[in-house]
Amino acid sequence: MDAQWFGDMTIGTPSQKFKILFDTGSSNLWIPNKSVNLWGKLKNKYHSERSSTFKANGDKMEIQYGSGAIKGFFSNDQISIAGLTVQNVDFGEIQTLSWNFLTSKFDGILGMGWKAISVKNYDTVFDKIQQQKLVDPSFSFYMTSTPGSTGSELILGGVDDTKYTGEFAYYPLISESYWLIAGDKMSYNGKTFGNDGGLKLIIDSGTS
Fold first, then answer.
1. What are the domain boundaries of the chain?
2. Which residues are annotated as catalytic?
3. Nearest-CA neighbor of 23 among 151, 114, 94?
4. Nearest CA to 14 among 107, 94, 80?
5. 73 within 8 A of 66, measured Cβ to Cβ
6. Residue 151 exposed, middle or buried by CB count within 10 Å (0-12, 13-18, 19+)
7. What are phi and psi of 91, to 5 degrees?
8. Which among 81, 90, 127, 182 would be 20 to 30 A from 13, CA to CA?
9. pLDDT at position 177
10. 100: DSSP letter
11. What value, to the nearest 5°, has the Cα angle with vertex 165 and ends 159 and 167?
């Protein structure tokens, strides 16, 4: 229904495969734990005992999203996205998912916001990518306009120049928390919101 988009990611050694929502509106990675509650039973689940690169942590994780809530604990392992292997990533093993996640096509979420909004200030996955000097410090999204079609892309370390024409416009961030920029004002249904420069807007790949 053109409502969600997600991609493959693996965790652990040997790899365990998950479908992940790449979300610029949050900053933590999480996947369902092997003992997740009812609302996560149909999803792929992480088994720490099957990974030789797993490291125990146990610190609590709780996140309230606009579309549901999660509870669990932190663990550490390596992850791989399209062959790019990132070492020592702290992520959540989630034991409690709210009912909202029952119909989601993805197993977990990889937050691509800034460390300032990361639960307990853990390094983000992209922080780890930069520390390990794996790609250039940028990422980009391309989304197809046809529901159910293939071809959407997440590029780690640049852009796909076959997917656009013209030049990019650049906007300064007003906070390194969300991808937060300033807006002028907007009008809808006869009402005006904000004044010149009065809006704060986030670029959020996880919502519509």
1. 7-156
2. 23, 204
3. 114
4. 80
5. no
6. exposed
7. -140, 165
8. 127
9. 94
10. G
11. 75
Q: Would you mind telling me the total number of residues written for the chain in this entry?
A: 208
Q: Which two tokens stand for residue 205?
A: 């790949």
Query: What pTM, to 2 d.p., does this model score?
Result: 0.92
Q: Which residue has the tokens 């579309």?
A: 67
Question: Does residue 86 contact residue 79 with C-beta atoms inside 8 Å?
Answer: yes
State which H helix or E strand residue 111 sits in: strand 108-111
Dihedral of alpha carbons 22, 24, 27, 32, sign: negative
Which CATH architecture is the domain 7-156 placed in? Beta Barrel (2.40)
Average pLDDT per block of 10 residues along the chain, 208 residues long? 84 97 95 95 96 97 89 98 94 95 92 96 96 94 84 91 93 94 90 82 88
20-43: string of b/e by CB count within 10 Å (b at 16+)?
bbbbbbbbbbbbbbeebeebbeeb
Rounded-to-5 percentages of helix, strand, coil across the chain: 10, 45, 45
The pairing of beta strand 153-156 with beta strand 173-176: unpaired
